[in-house]
Structure prediction request, 287 residues.
Amino acid sequence: MKKMTYVAAFALAMGLAACGGGQKKQAAEPAAEETPATPVYTVVENPQVDLSQFKVDKDGYIVLFDGTSLEGWRGYGKQHVPGRWVVEDGCLKFCGTGEGEGQRGDGGDIIFAHKFKNFELLFDWKVSKGGNSGCFYLAQEVTTEKDGKVNYEPIYISAPEYQLLDNVNHPDAKLGKDNNRQSASLYDMIPAVPQNQKPFGEWNEGKVMVFKGTVVHGQNGKNVVEYHLWTQQWTDMLQASKFSQAKWPLAYELLNNCGGEKHEGYIGFQDHGDDIWIRNVRIKVMD
Prediction:
């Protein structure tokens, strides 16, 4: 297991270049009391699965979940699939605890153990009444150390999130700004427009396309979000969100350069304590 350790200088992220391949420029250093320091963190590099061992469908998409096997999947920060993720009736199901983001020992987020750079991801999903989850992309496995103990930071501080939510019955749909926490939105940043989600218990079609920094979210046949990573637009959106430099300096640092130097990362699904079903997970690599 290979590790890369970073000591992030808190002022550097503000000078992120629009097309700089993750490079940063030195900005004027603000007063120390105005900007919290970013903690020391480690990006853990674990072995990746061989994509050539997975089926390719008639449309050229690699099948990441075929409805029968969890091959290629594991828990975030784990070497096994957490017990609450199961295969049921051809679906990848999270068996909810009803405890929100508690993520008990037999739960936790799940990732496919291969990093992707430019791709189109397709999947079907549905949630229980009042259900909440998310689809992450360009995720890294990040640890910090405190009092001699190493802990994994949550996946969402390194990865943009495609929100999976029951818009009618979950209170998060009414939080954030301008509906930017509703289904298919870029969580806490850009609302999905049009908002064409189907009700809880019904299947929705999800899509995430990432190509050279341009990102598109699709829902039920419509493109509903578009934005551009590693640009001033992206930095400004982070600053206006819960992941701002002042509120959460580690998340700001990681998300400002999400995907790391290679601009690639894991795809994952969230344990938010609620039942969720996922099927037909397919990806087309566009490198």
Notes: Helices lie at 232-239, 249-256. The chain has two helices and 17 strands.
